[in-house]
Amino acid sequence: MADTRTPDRSISRRTLAKGAAWSVPTVALASAAPALASSIQVPPTFTYKSANKIPGNSCKPVWFKGYVFNFTVCNPSPVDIWIHTVSYVLSGTNVAYAPNPNQFPMLIPANQCRDVGFNATNNGNSANDVFTATLTVVWDHTQDGSDSTDHNPVVVPISVTSTPPIPECEDAKKTAAAASEGTSSTSSSAAKSSAPASSSSAPASSSAPASTSAPASTSAPAAPASQAPTSTAAPSGS
Known about the structure:
Blueprint (H helix, E strand, L loop, with lengths): L12 H27 L5 E10 L11 E10 L5 E11 L6 E2 L6 E3 L3 E10 L9 E10 L13 E7 L6 H46 L1 H5 L8 H11 L1
Antiparallel strand pairs: 1-2, 2-6, 3-5, 3-7, 4-6, 7-8
Keywords: Signal
């Protein structure tokens, strides 16, 4: 008697194994892409260049009263880096500093360097000072700082030997001073030009005695013939 059973169409264990071997790498590749940035632990590097003081409010709104620490910041990794905060611990000075929040987040593109200035603000005088400082920089690879906990902060010690006024502020002050001098000279020249006008008006008032010289013309009645032109002059005046 012939075997009429339907062939078994179920998936064999070997087929399942072959399918699993093909699908696992796909899942692995898909999950590796989002984790790429977080897995890169190459921090930015900081090369200290100089420091400048910011007197008063002369550099608002870019800089606020305090100091600017100038660095060359490099990103040696193949992924963009974002700097989110910079905190300061200083010794050798009694002025407290706080970071300028308007600077962050700060982008350092992949495989590039940038010259940046970190603004430390204070409520005291911005004197030409000498001190040491330790900067703690929080960074990651996201603009919103969502994976900053996966990246160790960078600690940057520096020695500040002088803090001359920031050149940008000095240029701004010179421009403002020149504009102020121009305004002053314009107003003073205007005052000088108005002075002759007032002095010239004085002779106008002094011309009144000229009208009092009319009695000299009243001596004309001594010559009756000259009275006729005087009387004809009146109609022309009307």
